[in-house]
Amino acid sequence: MTAPILDVRSISIAFGGLKAVTDFSLSLPAGALQGLIGPNGAGKTTVFNLLTGVYRPQTGEIHLDGRRVDGLKPNRIAAAGLARTFQNIRLFADLTVLDNVRVACHVRAEAGLAAALFRTRAHYGEEAAIRERALSLLEIFGLTHRAGEYARNLPYGDQRRLEIARALATGPKVLLLDEPAAGMNPQEKRALADLIALVRRQFGLTVLLIEHDMGLVMNICEAITVIDHGMTIARGTPTEVQSDPAVIEAYLGAPDEPAADSAVGSAKVDP
Amino acid sequence: MLGARAAALRPGYGFVLSRALGPFGAVLALAFVMQLVVVPWSGPFYEKLLMDIGINCLLAVSLNLVNGFTGQFSIGHAGFMAVGGYVAGAVTYYGSFVLWGSPAVHGGFLGGGDLLFLAGCLLGGLFAAGAGYLVGLPSLRLRGDYLAIVTLGFGEILRVLLQQTNDVIFVAEEIASATPWDLATALGGALGFSGIPFYTTVFWVFVMLGLLLIVAIRLKESSEGRAFLSIRENEIAAEAMGIDTTRYKVRAFVLAAFFAGIAGALFAHETGTTLNPRELGFQKSFDIVIMVVLGGMGSISGALVAAVLLTILPEFLREFADWRLVIYALSLIVMMRFRPQGLFGIREIWELWRKPPGAPTAGGAP
Question: pTM, whole model, 2 decimals?
Answer without folding.
Answer: 0.90
